[in-house]
Structure formats: C-alpha cells, structure tokens
Design a protein that fits this description.
The chain is of the alpha/beta class. It has 3 domains: 250 residues, Rossmann fold, CATH 3.40.50; 73 residues, no CATH class; 76 residues, no CATH class. It is 32% helix and 22% strand. Strands 2-5-1-6-7-8-15-16 form an 8-stranded mixed β-sheet, sandwiched between helices. Strands 4-3-10-11-12 form a 5-stranded mixed β-sheet, covered by helices on one side. Helix 3 runs parallel beside helix 4 and helix 4 crosses helix 5. The longest helix is centred in the C-terminal third of the chain and has 21 residues. The N and C termini lie far apart (84 Å).
C-alpha cells in the first residue's frame, strides 16, 4: 500500500476483475516454397494481391509454359494468320506450385498466412538444395510465434523421398514447439494410388505422427496458367503479357483478332495441384465458423473440378485404417449431388487412441498454448495459495467457456475438465523449494462421429 506524507486527495485504482485466458489464433499456415522474389525472412500475407506484391507472381519460365503455334499461309496473295499446330501443355513437373496453392488457399476461406521462401525459382528443383533450404526456412519460422500450420507444398516437386524428408523436419518442429501442425500431401508417383500410399507409409518415418495429417489425391482445379506464363512459337512469335500483345512478324491488328482464341486456349488448360493449399484454407474457414474442435471434414472444396483419382469405399478403408503402420491418410472424394468433399479427419497416428483425430490434436495445441501464454504473468509471483487460486480460477473460466461452445464433452463442467493445483495436490514441499508451480489440467475433448451406424431389426406384430 502506498505511503502518503502530504495532505490531499489521492486516487487508487483497485483491480477487481480476474485475469483471463485469451485464445491464440488457430489456423495461420506457413507455406514453404520457391518465390519469384528473393525473401530472406518469412513474410506475413493477408491476400493474393499482397502475395504477388511481396513474393512475386508465378513461375513464367518456358520450362513450365504452354506453347501455342501461330501459323501463317498465303491466300490470294495475302498472308493469313491462324492458331495452328499442336498445343504443348506444361510438363507435370513445374518449377514452383506455391503461387497456385496460395490461390487455392484463399479460394477456400484462407486468411492471414506466412510465406517462408526456400529461394527463387530454379531450373530443376534439387532435392539436397531444397531440403537444406527448407531446414533454413523452418529455423526462421521457429522465431515466428503466430504460425500454427506448416504447408511444405513445393517439396512435392522433389518426389516421394525428398518430400517426406522435408515433412519429417516439419513434424519435428511441431513436436519441439508444440504450437503447430503439418498438412501433408500424398505425393504422386504417376503409377497407382497404392504406390502413392505405400510411399508415404514407407518414407515418412514413425516420429511425431500426431502432429500431421495427410490428404489424397491431387486435385483437378479450375485454376489456369496466368497470361504471362504463356509463350507462343511458330511462324510468328507472340507473347501475351499483362493482357497486352507484343508481336513479332505479324501485324498487331491481326494478332489482336486472335487474342480471344489465344485466351480461350490458355483458359482451357486447367492445373492439377496437391491438395494442401485447399486443405489449409478449409482449416481456417472451419476454425472461424465452428471452432478448432470441429473436424475439417465433410466440407466442400472450392475451385476444384474433381479429385484426380476417384476413391472407392474399399480403397478409403485401407487408407483410413492401417493395422500395420497405423498411418492414416484422409481421402478427398467426389459424391454425386454433393460435389467434392474432404472425407477424413485422422492424423497420421491413426491407431493412437489419444491423438487419432485432427480436431483433438489441434484443440490440445490451442489450449496448451493459450494457457501457457496467459499464465506467464505468474512467473516470479509468490508460490502460495493466493497465486494458485488465481491461476485455477482463470483456467477453469477459460475451459468453461470452451465447454459452453461445444469443444468439451460432458453435461456439466466438472464432467468436461478438471484443474488441480496446490501443495499436497500437484506439488510437494520440495517443488516449492525448487520454484516449481505445477498445474494439472484434464479435458474430455469431443471426438468426431466418424462412423454413423444405423441398426434395424424386424418388430413382431403384437395385435
């Protein structure tokens, strides 16, 4: 209490409201990949326009370009130009998918996110270079507190072995920091779905699997190559850039007449992409509308025509439950009359009773980080009953609010969670002497109804 020496009126403000737990953001992904601009540090992005301004546009190199031939012919002593020849579409392996994955992310409800560049576009993605660059990018992301999801989308260009090396680094960081989760693509092998699934289970290892979830298959999207990613070759070379035609060899008015045909050919080429960008957007959208405890599943995917592979019930059964490795893979499926839906909500630790489901793992990540940050004020406070009661009341109030929102199971708060703290409860005298304040928190997290079982039987006539 203050000591006063001079007569007068003094005002003192007395805090009467208890401390509270502020819930941390739950779906702030960090994308790892090649960028057009060289970025030395992770950057925060809030829109596609900002991504282009800060990171640069898509890869426009000829190695990933669509090729269209402009043909010319002499008719009645006049040169006539037309689109002819064979259209050469981009090869399956592009130099970067990040730009297009960001488009999918924002189209599916994504909000603020981070981009951690692994360098500028290179002619051919190199496994050793990318794995090292991804490790450096992840080290920088350690210093960023906000990201809660890791999406190493461009690592898919390395093939199964290189990609899962990067994923293992992401899972290790998630386990180390315990405040983030990894969205994993099932990399295409260009052979069969069985090979893709086997590659994931063979290559991804067995460590920290509860901190990641895998999705299959790739998606046939409605996204197209931007105009500046198109190169025209043939009798006349034409480059379509920023909606302007630069011509060589053909009159500008002639090429302008072909512009609509050219643009249509560009628009007819639809990109096939890994699902992680769309899934990250769905995580963000579901978290905003329902909460982190709601499974990001049974949700439509925007900007997608259909999954590249139609998955059957039997095939999904093998992906969803694997008695040997326990590594579950979530399917994206097309249903007649419903469209394209995310049809799975398991972590890679699919046989783990505690961490089998994505919403359970992510709820615990959220609660643990929120409470850890909220209790930081008590560091160096007296380790006595007054501090213990403040902390207990603060945490119980936070968990009660979660229970009311439907995040925790139980008809009453005491059935949904418990908070224990105190001497003889969670601590012994030696803990006090060593400066340890130990709080035990238990929660009954709600789990998704993964299998709806309807049982029917005959009822005998009674009258």
């Amino acid at each position: 209490m203050s000591t006063y020496n001079s007569p007068g009126v003094y005002v003192e403000e007395v805090a009467t409201l208890p401390a509270s737990v502020a819930q941390v953001a739950t779906a702030i992904p960090a994308f790892l990949g090649y960028t057009k601009n060289n970025l030395s540090e992770p950057v925060r992005i809030t829109s596609m326009a900002e991504f282009v301004a800060v990171c640069g546009g898509p890869d426009t190199a000829a190695a990933s370009s669509l090729q269209i031939q402009i043909a010319s012919a002499t008719v009645n002593s006049k040169t006539v130009y037309s689109i002819g020849g064979t259209i050469a579409y981009p090869t399956a392996t592009m130099r970067s998918l990040l730009y297009y994955s960001m488009q999918l992310y924002f189209a599916n409800g994504g909000g603020p996110c981070y981009v951690a560049s692994t360098g500028v576009f290179t002619a051919t993605p190199n496994k050793n270079h990318f794995v090292t660059a991804a490790g450096n990018a992840l080290d920088k992301l350690k210093l960023e507190d906000e990201p809660t999801l890791l999406v190493p989308v461009d690592a898919t260009l390395l093939g199964a072995t290189g990609y899962y090396d990067v994923v293992e680094q992401c899972l290790a960081q998630c386990n180390d920091l315990k405040d983030r989760f990894t969205i994993v693509d099932t990399v295409e092998s260009n052979t069969s779905s069985n090979t893709d699934v086997e590659d994931l289970r063979d290559e991804i290892g067995n460590n920290y699997l509860s901190y990641g979830a895998a999705y299959y298959p790739y998606l046939n999207t409605t996204l197209t190559l931007p105009d500046e990613a198109v190169v025209f070759t043939g009798a006349s070379t034409v480059t379509l850039a920023a909606a302007k035609l630069a011509t060589s060899g053909a009159p500008a008015d002639i090429m302008a007449q072909l512009k609509d045909q050219i643009s249509k050919l560009v628009g007819d080429y639809l990109l096939t992409l890994p699902p992680s960008g769309a899934i990250a957007g769905i995580y963000a959208a579901v978290d905003r509308s329902r909460g982190v405890w709601k499974a990001p599943a049974n949700v439509s995917i925007n900007s997608v025509v259909e999954p590249e592979v139609r998955v059957t019930d039997a095939e999904q059964g093998d992906m969803n439950v694997d008695a040997t490795s326990g590594k579950s893979i979530n399917a994206i499926r097309h249903f007649t009359g419903k469209g394209n839906l995310v049809w799975g909500a398991r972590t890679l630790a699919g046989n783990d009773n505690e961490w089998r489901y994505v919403p359970v793992r992510r709820l615990y990540i959220t609660v643990e980080e929120s409470i850890a940050k909220a209790t930081a004020f008590s560091v160096f406070e007296p380790n006595d009953a007054n501090t213990w009661s403040k902390l207990k009341a603060m945490i119980e109030n936070y968990l009660t609010n979660l229970w009311r929102q439907g995040a925790l199971a139980g008809s009453k708060p005491e059935q949904a969670f418990f908070v224990n703290v105190g001497l003889g409860v969670t601590m012994v005298p030696d803990d006090i002497l060593n400066g340890n304040l130990i709080i035990e928190v238990g929660m009954a997290a709600v789990r998704p109804a993964e299998f709806i079982i309807l049982r029917f039987s005959h009822k005998m006539q009674e009258a």
